[in-house]
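User: Predict the structure for this protein chain, please.
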Amino acid sequence: MIWKKPWKLTEGFLIGGGLILAGLILELCVGPVSWQLFAWPVNIVTLVVLLLAIVAMHLLRRRVYAFMFLSTYAAAVPALVYAVVLTVIMGLTRQQPNGTWLNDMLTFWPFVLIYTYIVVILGLVILKKRINSTLLLHLGLFIALITGTLGNADMQRLQMWTTNNADMANALSESDAFHQYERFALDANGVKKELPLAVELKRFIMEMHDDSITPKRYASEVVIYSKANGHAYAATIDVNKPVEVDGWKIYQKDYRLTEAGDACQISVLELVSDPWLPWVYAGIFMMLAGALLLLCGFRPK
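Assistant: Here is the predicted structure, written as structure tokens:
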């Protein structure tokens, strides 16, 4: 008989299934999750509210049985099963911004609700645990999940097109899209963003294979001007060898060639800012430390 105390795995799967159903209804009624609504400082407010809610649930666990149930394996195991299934689906489907339900899982309400449910379960488990290696594992996972999710709203991935040809730069500036000392970049929706730094392309490097068709290497020699401190940084940006300035990682993404030849090459750079990433790394390192202590047989006195 279901919903008879103590609740077991059956109730856990029903709660998880109910969250997925609620997510599907939200997806149909309001559309996908808009993470931009959670950008700073809304994500901090959301984090504080969530933490306070978890503490309140912990304090009320003896009065409200559902809160006590959430800190048990019977709630955790079904939640993890649903999360694994959704994550596998995400891995098997092509993910792209503004895609269909399964093609943009990070904005898919069932996916978001299940992972939020896991965060709540983790928080309640952490509050009832003693200090030991498993606590470090759970706390690390909690930090990595919550900062990785809420930090998603503040992450920016932009494209910048630069050229070292003055005539082309001036011509492109007339369309308000480019100029020689580029300080604007475009997001995935084509919206232009002004950056706290500017990039001057000094030289575009192109090395070809013997067939003179496919490139062996392409890179950009640039000077990056920081608005924060007024410094100028000279650097060479290679594929898979980004340069970091003022919290922005700058990658060599692509290039464009024109009929005029080398003098009119355009370097396409990708700029990524993820201010919450250090906290995600901190959570991962805590998980690794907890696993190491567990392997070493650490027990608190």
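The helical segments are 9-30, 42-59, 65-69, 73-92, 109-128, 133-150, 166-173, 277-295.
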